[in-house]
Amino acid sequence: MLLLGNSKTDSTQPHISEIIPYGYLYLLILGIAAESIYYGVIGINFLSYASILDVLLGPVAILTDNILLFAILIGLGIIFYLFLLLVNKVQEKKQSDKRTMNLLTSWLLFMSMAVFWGFVGYGYGGALSEKERIENKNIEHNLVVHFINGESKEVRKLGNTGGYLFYIEKGQKKTSVSPIHGTILSMTSL
Prior knowledge:
Elements: H1 16-41, H2 46-49, H3 52-65, H4 67-94, H5 103-135, E1 143-147, E2 152-160, E3 164-169, E4 176-179, E5 184-189
Antiparallel strand pairs: 1-2, 1-5, 2-3, 3-4
Helix pairs in contact: 1-3, 1-5, 4-5
Protein backbone atom coordinates (compact mmCIF):
# COMPACT_ATOMS: atom_id res chain seq x y z
CA MET A 1 0.00 0.00 0.00
CA LEU A 2 1.39 3.39 -0.94
CA LEU A 3 1.70 6.00 1.73
CA LEU A 4 1.92 9.64 0.85
CA GLY A 5 5.61 10.38 1.22
CA ASN A 6 6.48 6.72 1.80
CA SER A 7 6.00 3.53 -0.22
CA LYS A 8 6.31 0.96 2.58
CA THR A 9 3.52 -1.45 3.37
CA ASP A 10 1.67 -1.02 6.64
CA SER A 11 1.00 -4.19 8.63
CA THR A 12 -1.66 -2.40 10.73
CA GLN A 13 -4.06 -2.31 7.78
CA PRO A 14 -7.30 -4.24 8.42
CA HIS A 15 -7.97 -7.50 6.60
CA ILE A 16 -10.68 -7.51 3.93
CA SER A 17 -12.95 -9.62 6.17
CA GLU A 18 -12.91 -6.80 8.70
CA ILE A 19 -13.93 -4.23 6.08
CA ILE A 20 -16.84 -6.13 4.47
CA PRO A 21 -19.40 -5.32 7.23
CA TYR A 22 -18.66 -1.62 6.71
CA GLY A 23 -19.25 -2.11 2.99
CA TYR A 24 -22.68 -3.60 3.67
CA LEU A 25 -23.49 -0.76 6.05
CA TYR A 26 -22.41 1.78 3.43
CA LEU A 27 -24.52 0.06 0.76
CA LEU A 28 -27.48 0.04 3.14
CA ILE A 29 -27.13 3.77 3.89
CA LEU A 30 -26.67 4.51 0.18
CA GLY A 31 -29.79 2.54 -0.75
CA ILE A 32 -31.92 4.10 1.97
CA ALA A 33 -30.78 7.63 1.11
CA ALA A 34 -31.15 7.40 -2.66
CA GLU A 35 -34.43 5.47 -2.77
CA SER A 36 -36.10 7.23 0.18
CA ILE A 37 -35.35 10.66 -1.25
CA TYR A 38 -36.59 9.73 -4.73
CA TYR A 39 -39.81 8.10 -3.62
CA GLY A 40 -40.36 10.55 -0.73
CA VAL A 41 -40.43 13.55 -3.07
CA ILE A 42 -43.08 11.89 -5.26
CA GLY A 43 -45.18 10.90 -2.25
CA ILE A 44 -44.30 7.28 -1.48
CA ASN A 45 -42.82 6.07 1.81
CA PHE A 46 -40.31 3.66 0.28
CA LEU A 47 -39.24 2.03 3.53
CA SER A 48 -42.81 0.92 4.23
CA TYR A 49 -42.72 -1.25 1.11
CA ALA A 50 -39.06 -2.27 0.87
CA SER A 51 -37.23 -5.30 2.16
CA ILE A 52 -33.58 -5.28 3.17
CA LEU A 53 -32.73 -6.85 -0.20
CA ASP A 54 -34.52 -4.02 -2.04
CA VAL A 55 -32.45 -1.48 -0.12
CA LEU A 56 -29.14 -3.32 -0.67
CA LEU A 57 -29.77 -3.85 -4.38
CA GLY A 58 -31.14 -0.33 -4.94
CA PRO A 59 -27.73 1.26 -5.65
CA VAL A 60 -26.82 -1.56 -8.03
CA ALA A 61 -30.12 -1.10 -9.86
CA ILE A 62 -29.53 2.65 -10.13
CA LEU A 63 -26.05 2.13 -11.60
CA THR A 64 -27.23 -0.46 -14.13
CA ASP A 65 -30.22 1.70 -15.03
CA ASN A 66 -28.20 4.89 -15.56
CA ILE A 67 -24.91 4.22 -17.32
CA LEU A 68 -24.08 7.96 -17.38
CA LEU A 69 -23.99 8.14 -13.57
CA PHE A 70 -21.79 5.04 -13.51
CA ALA A 71 -19.40 6.54 -16.09
CA ILE A 72 -19.19 9.86 -14.22
CA LEU A 73 -18.35 8.12 -10.94
CA ILE A 74 -15.70 5.93 -12.59
CA GLY A 75 -14.19 8.95 -14.37
CA LEU A 76 -14.19 10.98 -11.17
CA GLY A 77 -12.48 8.11 -9.32
CA ILE A 78 -9.75 7.83 -11.96
CA ILE A 79 -9.14 11.58 -12.05
CA PHE A 80 -8.91 11.82 -8.25
CA TYR A 81 -6.57 8.82 -8.07
CA LEU A 82 -4.26 10.43 -10.65
CA PHE A 83 -4.38 13.64 -8.63
CA LEU A 84 -3.35 11.75 -5.49
CA LEU A 85 -0.45 10.15 -7.38
CA LEU A 86 0.68 13.62 -8.45
CA VAL A 87 0.48 14.87 -4.85
CA ASN A 88 2.47 11.80 -3.77
CA LYS A 89 5.25 12.61 -6.28
CA VAL A 90 5.39 16.25 -5.16
CA GLN A 91 5.72 15.17 -1.53
CA GLU A 92 8.49 12.71 -2.42
CA LYS A 93 10.43 15.52 -4.14
CA LYS A 94 10.11 17.68 -1.05
CA GLN A 95 11.25 14.67 0.99
CA SER A 96 8.69 15.45 3.61
CA ASP A 97 8.81 13.37 6.77
CA LYS A 98 5.24 14.29 7.63
CA ARG A 99 2.98 11.25 7.69
CA THR A 100 -0.38 11.87 6.09
CA MET A 101 -3.28 9.64 5.17
CA ASN A 102 -2.27 6.82 2.82
CA LEU A 103 -3.21 6.97 -0.83
CA LEU A 104 -5.84 4.22 -0.75
CA THR A 105 -7.56 5.59 2.35
CA SER A 106 -7.69 9.09 0.83
CA TRP A 107 -9.12 7.74 -2.39
CA LEU A 108 -11.71 5.53 -0.64
CA LEU A 109 -12.83 8.39 1.59
CA PHE A 110 -13.23 10.74 -1.37
CA MET A 111 -15.02 8.13 -3.50
CA SER A 112 -17.39 7.11 -0.70
CA MET A 113 -18.47 10.74 -0.32
CA ALA A 114 -18.65 11.30 -4.10
CA VAL A 115 -20.76 8.19 -4.62
CA PHE A 116 -23.04 9.07 -1.71
CA TRP A 117 -23.69 12.63 -2.91
CA GLY A 118 -23.96 11.43 -6.52
CA PHE A 119 -26.73 9.01 -5.54
CA VAL A 120 -28.51 11.56 -3.35
CA GLY A 121 -28.35 14.12 -6.17
CA TYR A 122 -29.53 11.58 -8.72
CA GLY A 123 -32.47 10.58 -6.50
CA TYR A 124 -33.47 14.14 -5.67
CA GLY A 125 -33.05 15.47 -9.23
CA GLY A 126 -34.92 12.54 -10.74
CA ALA A 127 -37.74 12.92 -8.23
CA LEU A 128 -38.09 16.66 -8.87
CA SER A 129 -38.36 16.15 -12.63
CA GLU A 130 -40.84 13.27 -12.13
CA LYS A 131 -42.92 15.38 -9.72
CA GLU A 132 -42.97 18.25 -12.22
CA ARG A 133 -44.18 15.91 -14.98
CA ILE A 134 -46.91 14.60 -12.66
CA GLU A 135 -48.09 18.09 -11.67
CA ASN A 136 -48.13 19.28 -15.31
CA LYS A 137 -49.85 16.05 -16.43
CA ASN A 138 -47.00 15.56 -18.87
CA ILE A 139 -46.76 11.86 -18.11
CA GLU A 140 -45.80 9.25 -20.66
CA HIS A 141 -47.57 6.06 -19.69
CA ASN A 142 -45.22 3.18 -20.36
CA LEU A 143 -46.97 0.09 -19.00
CA VAL A 144 -50.27 -1.77 -19.06
CA VAL A 145 -50.89 -3.61 -15.80
CA HIS A 146 -53.19 -6.63 -16.03
CA PHE A 147 -54.71 -7.48 -12.65
CA ILE A 148 -55.92 -10.91 -11.55
CA ASN A 149 -59.53 -9.66 -11.37
CA GLY A 150 -59.47 -9.01 -15.15
CA GLU A 151 -59.01 -5.24 -14.92
CA SER A 152 -56.27 -3.55 -16.97
CA LYS A 153 -54.79 -0.11 -16.37
CA GLU A 154 -52.49 2.03 -18.47
CA VAL A 155 -49.92 3.45 -16.04
CA ARG A 156 -46.64 5.30 -15.71
CA LYS A 157 -44.32 3.01 -13.75
CA LEU A 158 -42.41 5.02 -11.14
CA GLY A 159 -40.56 2.02 -9.75
CA ASN A 160 -40.95 -1.16 -7.80
CA THR A 161 -39.61 -3.27 -4.98
CA GLY A 162 -39.64 -7.05 -4.81
CA GLY A 163 -43.26 -7.03 -3.69
CA TYR A 164 -44.82 -3.71 -4.78
CA LEU A 165 -45.33 -1.69 -7.95
CA PHE A 166 -45.41 2.14 -7.75
CA TYR A 167 -47.31 3.86 -10.55
CA ILE A 168 -49.61 6.66 -11.71
CA GLU A 169 -52.79 5.73 -13.55
CA LYS A 170 -53.72 7.46 -16.78
CA GLY A 171 -55.60 10.69 -16.01
CA GLN A 172 -54.53 10.74 -12.35
CA LYS A 173 -52.10 12.97 -10.45
CA LYS A 174 -51.70 10.76 -7.39
CA THR A 175 -49.34 7.86 -7.01
CA SER A 176 -50.60 4.34 -6.41
CA VAL A 177 -48.98 1.30 -4.86
CA SER A 178 -50.08 -2.21 -5.70
CA PRO A 179 -48.79 -5.52 -4.34
CA ILE A 180 -47.34 -7.61 -7.13
CA HIS A 181 -47.97 -11.06 -5.70
CA GLY A 182 -51.63 -12.09 -5.65
CA THR A 183 -52.82 -8.89 -7.38
CA ILE A 184 -51.00 -8.40 -10.69
CA LEU A 185 -51.25 -11.06 -13.37
CA SER A 186 -48.86 -9.49 -15.90
CA MET A 187 -47.36 -6.21 -17.12
CA THR A 188 -46.93 -5.23 -20.75
CA SER A 189 -44.70 -2.41 -22.00
CA LEU A 190 -46.27 0.18 -24.30
